[in-house]
Structures are given as structure tokens and as C-alpha cells.
User: Fold these one by one.
Assistant:
Number 1:
Amino acid sequence: MDRKKPLYRSVNTRTHGVRHGSGGEYRWSRRREDRLQDGAMGGRQRRGLDYTPLFRFLLSRVGDDWDAVFAEAVGRLDKAEPIFWMVARSEAEKKPFILIGEHSYYSGLFVDDGNRLRLVDPDLRVEHMEPGCACCTHTFNGAPFTRKYAPPGD
């Protein structure tokens, strides 16, 4: 049986300077009087996963049957939640684009009445996107923005 690659990958989290936003708080709070027994230590956190392959997979399946796309994606993921970062579950969740991380934008997706995966805004292109700052590389569906940063008021 030919096993397909997972739709996520590990990211190097041991490099110098990588911060996770948590840790160290315990040592500053362990002697606080308002801290009562907090219970057992928490479970392992899943850090360092990049779902870019999933987003590319979903974009490549626009127009396909949603049940087949969903079944294949779930079979190649550690959990189903990241699928719905990109695919709207309801009319209220539909957005023309979504932001993943700080500067990576992807087209918003939804499932139409015919059970097909569709783009929320099929006319949206990288040429329409404007970066929020001049110092970072902004991408739309993996392609760098073509427009340059224009400060407010220019």
C-alpha cells in the first residue's frame, strides 16, 4: 500500500532565539499565596507544526467533491481542526482571504450547495493584496505580494 505524505510538517523549534510564548511563569508564581494546588502538570503541547502543505492541498482541490477532499485530508493530518481555519463552516465564517501566522494569506474556501469546494472570492489575486509593512515578506497562496508597501497618508 502506497502511503501518502502527511499534510503538515515539523518546524525547527530548537534554533537559537525560538520563543514559544509560555514557560518560565511557574518559577515566578510558585510562592504566590493566591496560588493553590493547580493539579498535575499539563500534557505535552504540539509545537512546531506547519500546515502549509494542507493549505496547498485544499487550494488544489477547489471544484472537487468535498466529502472526498475532507476524507483524504483527515487521513493525512494529526487533527481535523486546521482544515476549518481555511474552509468556512457557515455563511457567517466566509472570508475572501485568511491570515495564517503573521504574513501568510490564503484564499478563503467554502462548500457550496452541490457539495463542491469553492473559493469565497474567485477574482482575488496576489496583485490585489497590499502588505501591512515594508520590512516583511507577505505572501498570498504562497506567492510574494507584487505591490509594495505604501505608508498611510501617501
Number 2:
Amino acid sequence: MGDEVGKGLEASAPAVPVPSRAEMATVIQVLAEQGFGRNEISRRTGFSTATVSRIAAELEIAFDRSKSGQALKARLTDLKLAQMSVAEGLTEDLTHARIMLRTASNRRDLAFAAKTISDLARSAQALTPEMSDANTVEDARDFFTDLRAQLGAVRDEFEKQHGVPFDSDEAGRIIKQQEETQDDES
């Protein structure tokens, strides 16, 4: 009987080749060079995050945590937008429930509409993100800090590529020439 179960499992489970450590290292290195983080490499390859971390450490690959922070901020912004969208939908449902309350023809319908309004109002309030001046100022500060860093990176890349200071007359001519080339192409 035990042999029959084993044979059944062998027949139903296709053989999946296990990559060698060298193959895993190559894949991880290529994806890391393309700018993917540890979690994204793990998700794309099916390797555990521990394996990715271990092999990356052996290859002396360091993941840029600033990109993870930016991705997290973007994800949180997306979640807030989705949350606000749900809250808006609940507010629309509240309008319909108020109509039900006004048109209730008996106590049971009246009680049902009142309970629905209470539940929808609580849910909408819980899902509506609170904005404060502190959040707005902090978000603006973060935005400008990130913008400054990105502009600095663009300046440094330009200077590295062209070998001239970004604020020089020569840099102005190079930029103007690149703009004219782009205009001609479009």
C-alpha cells in the first residue's frame, strides 16, 4: 500500500530541475545589476529572500535601500488613493441609504436604513485619511529633498559624461544641441 502512494506521488509530480548555486548566483547578480532589490529578485526567481541575501553577501552585492524607501512611499500613496476611493464609494452608498430612510414605510425598514447609515458612516470615516498641516509640510519637505537629490544625480552624471561643469557655457551649448537634436527627431 505504501508503495502505491509513493508511485502515485511520483507520477503526479513533474520533475522540477533545481538550479545550481552558480546559476542562482548568476541570476541574482544580473537582476541586482538591473537595479532590482532583494524582495523583487526573490519574487521573480522563486528563491527565498534568505537565499538571495546569502548569495548577494557572498558576491558582495549591496542593495540600495533608498530605492526600497521610494517604492514603499509610492505603494503607501497608492494604498491611500485606493482607500480614499473606497471611502468615496461608501459616501455614495450613504446617500442611497438616506433615501431608504426617508422612504421607509414601516419600522423594520426604518430601523434597517438607520443601522445601514450608521455602519456606512463609521466605515467611511475610518477609511478617510486624515490630513494635517504637519503631514503636508513633511510630504513637501520629502518631495523637495528627493528632487534635490535627483537633480544632483543628473548634474553629476552630466558632468561625468561630458567632462564639463554643469553651470558652464560649454554645458549650455551641449544641452541646447541635445534639445535641437530631440526636436529634429520628433
Number 3:
Amino acid sequence: MDFLDSILRVPLSQLPFYLITLVIAFTLHEFSHAYFANKFGDPTAKLLGRVTLNPAVHFDLLGIILLLIAGFGWARPVPVNRDNFSRPRLMGVIVSVAGPLSNLLLAVVGAAIYAALLQFGVVSPLGDDKLSQAVHIFFSLFIVMNFFLCLFNLIPLPPLDGYRILEDVVPRRVLGKLQQFEQWSVLIFLIILIVPGFQRYTIAPLYNAAHSLAAHFLIFFRTLFGA
């Protein structure tokens, strides 16, 4: 137990809740990319069986392991061929933003459900019993992680969705310059993730923002349900 706790970035007691959160968050994120790409005329993801809510199709084992032990990871990216879109840039933006928006939706729905459970007395806000404690741990992780994944994926660095959105909105002449520095952007992205000193100014603020959003939405929904 102690050995596993020392390796994992998540306490072992919270690991089941964390894994459930990742299964739901990653699956809906990648499904959203695949669904809208197929909807707009690109069958690439559909032909590969990615327009599905089956988690096994979207998960990357190495990405999940790294997420648990190093604090960052990934799912299997959905291949998209923008040449199949009738309006490649506009539809490309929608396909790219669909993933982060799915995490935003999950976070908001999670906050609404948890607020309702608290407000209507289904679980105790103080966690006085095991059920209340389990519900609190799950929804705390679920809401914060989905807010974080939404914000994190909007960072405009490859291979994140934010960079794909940037590619589709900047002028063509700027796009050419961006692509020249793309290999260095990947290195910058890795430095941000791996070097602790950089995390303090990059990843940590995103986690803080995710916690703040979670708190504000819980207050909003509890006030709404209590009215």
C-alpha cells in the first residue's frame, strides 16, 4: 500500500473514483471529436470505430499510466481529415472545441447533481457516513478534473485542441510560421508538464481555476435548488 501510494499521484483510496472520472471524461471527449467530424463529412474516425462511447476504443494504456504516476497523460487522439469538410476551417474549429466543451458539460452537470444531492439531503455535506464520504470524493474529483481538462486542452500548444483551434483561426501566412515552430512547441509543452518550476506557473494555475469554478458552480446550483 505504502509503495503504491508513493508512486501514484493520486491517493490509493481515491484511485477507483479517479479512474471512473477518467473513463467518463476521456471517452466523451474523444467521442465528441469523432462524432462532429463524422457529422461534418469526414468518415475517418467512423471507419476506425471511434464514433462510440466504448472506453476501450479511446484509451491509451501508456497515457493512463503516466497520468496516474506523473500527473499528465492522454487518450488516443481522434484522426481528423479537414479536407473532407465543406468548410474546413469553421468545421475544424467546431470539431476541435467539441472535446473541451464535453468536459465543461460534464463538470457543470456533475456540479448540478452533487448540489442537488446535498441540497435535498440525500447525502450529508459534512460526510458523516461512508456513503456521503464516497459521494463527496467522487464528485469533487469528477467536477474539478473535468474543469481542468477543459482548460488544459485549450492551451494553444500541440498536440492539444487549443493549438488545432489556433491553426484554424489564424491567417494562412501566420499558419505557415506556426507550423515551422511546431516541433519546438512540442518540446515547450513537455517542459511545461515535466519541470516542476514551470508547473507552478502553468499547470498549477489551471488546477486552481478548476477548483474555483467547481466551488462557484456548486454555490450557484445549491442556491438555485434552495430558492
Number 4:
Amino acid sequence: MNRFAVRDQTDRLDAQTQCEEIVRLLSTREFPWDIEQALSFALFRTYAVPSIGVLLHETGEFNQRTQKRYDDTVLILDTILEHGMSSPAGRSAFRRMNQMHGAYDISNDDMRYVLSTFVVMPVRWLAEFGWRALTPHEVTAWVNYYRAVGRHMGIRDIPETYDAFSTLLDDYEAAHFAYDARGKAVADATLELLTTFPPTNLAPKRLVHLFARALMEDALLDAFQYPHPSRLSRTVFRLALKARGKFVRYALSPRREPLYARQRPNIRSYPDGFAVESLGTFPKTCPVKHGTGQRAPSSGTP
């Protein structure tokens, strides 16, 4: 099979009307491992924004039931990806996600920022570590897909281009990254979970933590008060990821069948299957007291 068969296929699809199919091909066949890592780090960096990290800590979900909260987040998003936004399963997944978000006082700005991490971080990861970077056509489809996700979530003033998303992410982090012990506790719990995923569960925890920190920018490390890795550590781990990309490109056969998150060994909370309607939390009221921020409206049924 042609190593670039999927790229050739995405080139033939329309980036606006067929963006779901393009993102599905990229996420489940072309780059399943890379995009999983990139989205995990995308979510991780949001904890460094205190208004997000503190909320996640106060709910008790990410630091007390880290595995389940990780699984629920991934499975809800994966249901939308696998079945499509307009499918019954996709609509149920959006409804479940909007119900959870609607129970808390989350600002539209925070929602837009989190959305921007899901747009920008996979593009940047693949440009640096992937066996190939996304094409401009694929980037446009990626943006269109997450713009549609944002609309289904009721997020307002969504950026229209990748460059606008990238600027939003960088500016928001420069203005809002800050240390808070509660956000750090959520980050610590997430890093601890990372050490249990195969194959990293076979490595010493200190090495796994060092590997994760070697991929973080100084501003993110400072927001969690994590020690900065040495230049040598950064170089070694980043070169290892780049070498993996070369190995995938030149030594591995292209994936013929899609790999969805529900099929991966790090999703462990539902060995007998799951119903998307039962995923996540069911809070009656927001347990966190906030100021007067504008909350992104929950659209209920998209």
C-alpha cells in the first residue's frame, strides 16, 4: 500500500463539506498515536490556566478519578469522531458534554482557549514529530472540524483560520498561565496516570516524568513549578520522537483499518462497553464559587 495513500485520499475530499471524513482518516489511520499524544498534551496544558485547573480540581474528578475522567473525555470526543456530529450517537455525545459544561460557570474565553488547544497542538506536534506534517488542505479541514465542534458546544466568536487559533492560544497562555496549587495537583495526577499507560508503565516513573517535562515549554513548566529539564534531556527525548517518525515513515506499513480510542489499551474503565449517555459526571449544581464571568451557553441538543 502506498505510504501516502491517505494523504492522496484527503486531497480529494472537500475541506469544508467533508472535514469530518478527513479528520477521521487522520486520527484513526494516518496518525492515531501522534494525535492521541498531542490531544493529551493539549488538555494537560489547560490546567495551567487557574480558572480551568482550579475548577477541575474542585470537582474532584481529575485528581480523584483520573482514569475514569480521562476515559470519559476521550470516549465522548471519539464517539463524535467515529459516528459523525449529526448522527444519533454524535448528538448524544454533544448533549452529554454540554450538560456537564452547563453545570459550571465556565467563561466563553476559557472555552475558546480549550478549543484552540485541540486545533493547534496536533498541527504543531505533527510538524515536529510526525512522520509527515499535515498539508495545508488537511489543516483547513482540521480547523473546520473543530469550528463545527465549537458551534455545537455553543462557543461564541470562534476563530476562522488556523493562524487566528494559533494567535489566540499563544496570547491566552501568555496572559493567563500562572501557578495554582490546585491546578498543579490536577497536572500531577495526570502525569501519574501517564506512567500507567503501556508501554510507559514498563519504564521508571522518574524517566516518564522527565520525558513529559522535556516536551513542555518553559512557561508551562513554570506555571506548574516543575523543574526545567537539562538541554541534553530535551534534545535526547525530542530526537527520540523524531526518530520514531522516521521509523514509521520508512519501516512500517500504512494502517489499513481505523483505530478508535475505545480500542486502545489505555482506555480501561469500561471493559464491557459503555453507553455515551452515562459517561462523565452528573452534577446538580456547580460546587465552585466564581465571579461574574459569562458562561458559554449550553446548546443541549446540537
